[in-house]
Amino acid sequence: MLASGNSSLHPVSFILLGIPGLENYQFGIAFPLCAMYLVAVVGNVIVLHIVRTDHTLHEPMYLFLAMLAVTDLALSSSTQPKMLAILWFHAHEIEYHACLIQVFFIHAFSSVESGLLMAMALDRYVAICFPLHHSTVLTPAVVGKLGAAVMMRGLLWVSPFCFMVSRMPFCTNRVIPQSYCEHMAVLKLVCADTRVNRAYGLFAAFSVIGFDIIVISISYVMILRTVLRLPSEEARLKAFGTCASHICVILAFYIPALFTFLTHRFGHHVPRVVHVMFANLYLLVPPMLNPIIYGVRTKQIRDRVIQGCCGKDP
After folding, report:
1. What does the DSSP 8-state code read for residue 312?
2. How does this chain sit within the bilayer (predicted)?
């Protein structure tokens, strides 16, 4: 059923299939996905609470970590509740505007997460390469401006292709063969020339992720050069340990993200079930792992969690 709106035709709703090819196992698959989502929510809420209430943690790394926790909560919550409803209760239908909102949230907050990882790499670069100037270069005001710039970039870069797709006519087919609304998946249902949309999608992705990866790579090359020049082996190990958690987070985000992005456009021979599972994990694994990795690797946060669990004062 199509509805008329501002010179374009769009369906009243879309049908999300969930995980095509694993229909008989979807009910069971939902349990580990739900567990991962709960870990992501609880972990990121704990990180936010610790950073907010402990004023000794109002430093650049922890402020960026708090921003990352907010982003992870938004990113995972934009897809997981609906996904679980599909897998458990067969609630496959999603209203048209809700689908576009989901597209916007997924891509906007993915961009924000990438930008925050870049900002955290810059923070590690300044902290290790210019330790005496770290507190004067990355003041709370500068951290706030970086966070605001990353957020604005995500909103401004993503808004155009959401607006463009909302103005296009759709075919009678309204089935999306995955668990959530993603830009390319929705674009495939459009009955019009989508080359401009696809080109802008590629431009937005590569200008954001490409730029961030370049900055992250340069930062860590400079960090590695500085660390290898340290005279003490203990100091080198400590510096490597400081960066290890961040590198794990970067790999956990970019590897599945790039696989999902490239498969949507060029991976026509990749089995659909593999693509859909990676697409689901890409929005769930980083939000789940980030608080765990930082909680284990960051002594200050680990100590606060232990103190809270044991009821001890700091």
Report:
1. -
2. Multi-pass membrane protein
pLDDT tens digits for range 95-126: 999 999 999 999 999 999 999 999 999 999 99
CA distance linking residue 77 with residue 71, whole number of Å: 10
| Alpha-carbon span 304 to 249, nearest angstrom | 21
Q: Which two tokens stand for residue 212?
A: 């961030």
Across 12-16, 50-54, 130-134, 240-244, least confident range? 240-244
How far apart (Å, rounded) are the C-alpha atoms in residues 304 and 294? 12
Structure token pair of residue 296:
């284990």
Distance between start and end Cα atoms, the chain: 61
Backbone dihedral region for residue 52 (phi beyond 0: left; psi -120 to 50: alpha; all else: beta): alpha
Between helix 96-129 and helix 233-266 the angle, nearest 10°, is 150
Cα(220)–Cα(251) distance, rounded to whole angstroms?
A: 13
- Give the burial class of 224: count Cβ atoms within 10 A of its Cβ; 0-12 exposed, 13-18 middle, 19 or more buried: middle
For 32, other C-beta atoms within 10 Å of its C-beta total 10
